[in-house]
Amino acid sequence: MVSSKIGRGIAMKRKFLIAALVLVVALAFTLSGCKSPTPLTHELFREKAEEAEFTVEKDGADVSVATSPNGYTITLKIFSTDEAAKSAYSTREGLLPDGSSSSVKVDLPRHNFTKLTSGGRYYVIYRIGSTLLEIWDVDASSKNEIADFLKSVGY
Are 125 and 134 in contact (CB under 8 A)? Predict the structure, then answer.
């Protein structure tokens, strides 16, 4: 009788430990996905764009424009404040075409992004902190190339 209670107690502890371990692992995976991306600098933007064979020009102190070999542009703007970047993001978002065939939108306190395909054209607006990255009115066939570039810069 005593040995069966001990056996059940050990089995119960083992189940509890397994459940706790599963919970810790699940929590670790969940929290690792919540980290906000790091804002781009003009230097990193230039480096990654040139690696992808883009030509890069600086337009003043706050704007860099990368032109792909296929002719589309990616623009990085760095604002003086997060609020200014949020305002610019909202303005650009308001200019997106209606009737999208697909779209993805994320709004978080530190960053926002919208990716939209409409009429065979592709649009990306990405705000992180005080930075705004724009890819505007590009042939949708370039989506994979754009995704590769965004991944290379951590977006």
Answer: yes
